[in-house]
Amino acid sequence: xxxxxxxxxxxxxxxxxxxxxxxxxxxxxxxxxxxxxxxxxxxxxxxxxxxxxxxxxxxxxxxxxxxxxxxxxxxxxxxxxxxxxxxxxxxxxxxxxxxxxxxxxxxxxxxxxxxxxxxxxxxx
Length: 124
Hints:
By secondary structure, the protein is an alpha/beta fold. The chain contains five helices and five strands. It has helices spanning 15-27, 39-48, 64-73, 91-100, 112-123, and strands at 7-11, 31-35, 52-55, 82-86, 104-107. A five-stranded parallel sheet has the order 2-1-3-4-5, sandwiched between helices. Helix 2 packs parallel to helix 3. The radius of gyration is 13 Å and the shape is globular. The chain starts with 6 loop residues before the first strand and ends with a helix. The relative contact order is 0.18.
């Protein structure tokens, strides 16, 4: 399976969504590492180089947009694709995230099948 060793960082503060996404992504053969706050994602991305990062926008301590900007402004992490997965559907916020370098912006509630298709398109 082509996805066997692809590593995905998933930053999310909803336990039920973490359980669902962990199950779905592991079922597809991905390695998933979960973060409950945004602050650790950037530091770990520098050392662990995930194949993809899925970021919630509204998280405690450091929000997803701030983390996205850190990732995209550092040469060690700027090539890592990022998908924003959030309840915030405001056009201004979507545009800010896309301008900051997000590859996709998906609003909750969302289709896990569509998300998985986008992940496969991005990292295989």
